[in-house]
Design goal:
This protein has 168 residues and is mainly alpha-helical. Helix content is 52%, strand content 11%.
């Protein structure tokens, strides 16, 4: 059984312990990240995953961002994370693509070219596909615009507009 001790004021875990047959060990953030990657992405672990979204280790938060068993609030918190790796994992997360509001998605697009590129590759999976595609078609980096142009799920009206892009 895994136990997370949290400070209820800011919900930042202070220690994560693993208990097996009444033997308890505290595990460091690298071990925790490894454990998280190997735990199944199922509803039974949702509260555990969500309890770690503000963990001090970006590696742990990045492992959580991969999990589709997250609520909208947890996804919104991760979308504001300072770690680009967390954002990269989050935009590949199907649940996040369905629930992230447009304003947070735009902020993510503006923060990192690789993140914007990943969003362009999955643009059809976002709940606000057309709005995001309109933003990505004007992205300053040609790599992002090319990813959008190469995505068969990009709305046809956007693809027609991209025919005028000299970098595609």
């Amino acid at each position: 059984m895994t136990k997370t001790n949290t400070n209820t004021k800011n919900l930042t875990p202070t220690a994560v312990s693993l208990t097996v047959n009444d033997i308890t060990v505290t595990i460091d953030s690298n071990a925790l990240s490894d454990v998280l990657r190997n735990l199944p992405d199922i509803e039974a672990y949702k509260k555990f995953y969500e309890s770690l979204i503000t963990h001090p280790s970006s590696r742990v938060r990045a492992s959580i961002a991969d999990k589709e068993q997250l609520g909208e609030e947890a996804i919104s918190i991760l979308a504001k994370d300072s770690s680009v790796e967390v954002l990269r994992n989050l935009v590949r997360n199907r649940t996040a693509r369905e629930v992230l509001p447009l304003d947070l998605t735009i902020q993510i697009i503006e923060r990192d070219v690789e993140v914007a590129d990943s969003i362009a590759c999955y643009v059809e999976d976002w709940s606000n596909t057309m709005e995001i595609a309109k933003i990505l078609k004007n992205h300053p980096d040609p790599q992002v615009r090319l990813a959008l142009a190469n995505n068969r799920g990009t709305p046809k009206t956007i693809l027609r507009q991209q025919l005028k892009d000299e970098d595609n």
